[in-house]
Automatic annotation (TrEMBL):
Digeranylgeranylglycerophospholipid reductase catalytic domain span: 174-235
Record carries keyword Oxidoreductase: yes
PANTHER family: DIGERANYLGERANYLGLYCEROPHOSPHOLIPID REDUCTASE, GERANYLGERANYL DIPHOSPHATE REDUCTASE
Name of protein: NAD(P)/FAD-dependent oxidoreductase
Domain of life of the organism encoding this protein: Bacteria
UniProt source species: Ktedonosporobacter rubrisoli
Pfam family for this entry, one: GGR_cat
Gene Ontology BP terms: phospholipid biosynthetic process
Gene3D superfamilies named among the record's database cross-references: FAD/NAD(P)-binding domain (3.50.50.60)
Keywords attached to this entry: Flavoprotein, Lipid biosynthesis, Lipid metabolism, Oxidoreductase, Phospholipid biosynthesis, Phospholipid metabolism
Length: 240
């Protein structure tokens, strides 16, 4: 693997891929390091977003599904909000991430999957590179003038370089991607209440073609329960 890089980007999510594309367009030699087997999987978000953001980023319309009705549900009340034209959307996460990866590579960036950062190289208080393990368990020492930590909640660079602590409070969720042909494909539900998601919320996000994402998220460590328990309760207790 070449060590001739101007920027190392740890994390192949939307932030890392956007940084890689932007850098490469300026003639900067950018290398993205992603620890998973592929870009866009596993999925860590349900994909709720705004159409204006998708348009500003130049995302093709087939990668997001418009929502014209958002319903907030509490134990005692249900509040629908209508939008015409639609302003919210549900994103095809895997498709979006791979689209961004394609744009970054087309701009000239390099991308490596199954490359896990094990150590951060620090000299005189500056991060000057990383040590990564590739898919064959071979280790590589990579150096660059700039290293970008785009690893999300894990903060691979920041924590290892002692530039900050790991997040102690974070959202933890579980989700089913279901086929629900009778569900209105323009309606999104956000459900609050301890019966469904203590210290969190549940959601129903349609994503087109009869597909629906049904999920539950809780805040750790405020709630130590497994979100999957509440998700299964919704599946079995509220079939309608």
């Amino acid at each position: 693997m070449s060590d001739d890089n101007d920027v190392l980007i740890v994390g192949g999510g939307p932030a890392g891929l956007a940084a890689a594309e932007s850098a490469a367009k300026q003639g900067v030699r950018a290398l993205v390091l992603e620890r998973h087997n592929e870009i866009g999987y596993p999925i860590h978000t349900s994909g709720g977003s705004w159409i204006s953001d998708m348009q500003a980023l130049g995302i093709p319309q087939h990668l997001y599904h418009p929502i014209s009705k958002v319903v907030f549900v509490s134990p005692r009340r249900e509040v629908p909000l209508y939008y015409n034209p639609a302003v919210a959307c549900v994103v095809d996460i895997r498709g979006l991430y791979q689209h961004l990866a394609g744009r970054a590579v087309a701009a000239g960036a390099q991308l490596r999957v199954r490359h896990t950062v094990e150590q951060v190289q620090v000299e005189q208080g500056r991060v000057v590179g990383v040590t990564v393990k590739d898919h064959t368990s071979e280790r590589h020492n990579l150096r660059a003038p700039v290293t970008i930590d785009a690893s999300g909640i894990s903060r691979h660079i920041g924590v290892r370089a002692e530039m900050g602590k790991a997040f102690r409070r974070y959202g933890y969720g579980a989700e089913y991607d279901m086929y629900a042909p009778n569900y209105p494909q323009d309606e999104l539900y956000l459900i609050m209440g301890s019966a469904f998601a203590p210290r969190g919320y549940a959601w129903v996000f349609p994503r087109g073609n009869g597909r629906v994402r049904l999920g539950v998220g809780v805040i750790h460590p405020d709630c130590d329960d497994d979100a999957r328990t509440y998700l299964d309760r919704i599946i079995y207790d509220l079939p309608n």
